[in-house]
Amino acid sequence: MGNKMIRVKRPVKVKTIVTDGFKHQAKEELSKEIRLVENQIMQLELQGKQIQDQISGASALYYGEQNLEQIQVSLDEIIRRLQQMGELKQELQFQQENIEHLALDNVIITGSLENYVELRPGENLYEKFKDAEIIVKDGVIQDIVV
Question: What is the pTM of this model?
């Protein structure tokens, strides 16, 4: 078997113990994300309005049919992105509302990381890849399970 060894990435779950501090921080972060999405929506709406103003009253002769098609494609893309941003905003608001319903001291999955694990011939692959997790409470690591 020799000295053969390989390092591979494996997922590590980040679990958080729900506290009042976690709820407050999570709601703040979601509020910031919602404001960013709202700003993006406003920018997209402004771009769409500028394009509409640009072509309102203009004829195909002025812009040319090919340019009008490109303008329409741009407008369609803005509309598609506006729909995506609207859905994202709704999802973030839903998450923000649900935070209030989390029971204190519950443990929830809040993310994932990756770390490297060394594999050698003769080792049990399933044991090496069993659920690794980091337990966090108010930003402080409480436990690491490997």
Answer: 0.71
pLDDT, one tens digit per residue, over 41-65 is 999 999 988 877 776 665 555 666 6
Count of alpha carbons within 13 Å of 51, Cβ hemisphere only?
19
The answer for residues whose C-beta is within 8 angstroms of residue 116's C-beta and 6 or more apart is: 7, 8, 9, 10
Collapsed DSSP state (helix, strand, coil) of residue 41: helix
User: Tokens 């979601």 belong to which residue?
Assistant: 30
Q: How large is the C-alpha radius of gyration of the chain?
A: 25
Joined tokens for residue 33: 């994300």
Taken in order 39, 42, 47, 50, is the CA torsion positive or negative? negative
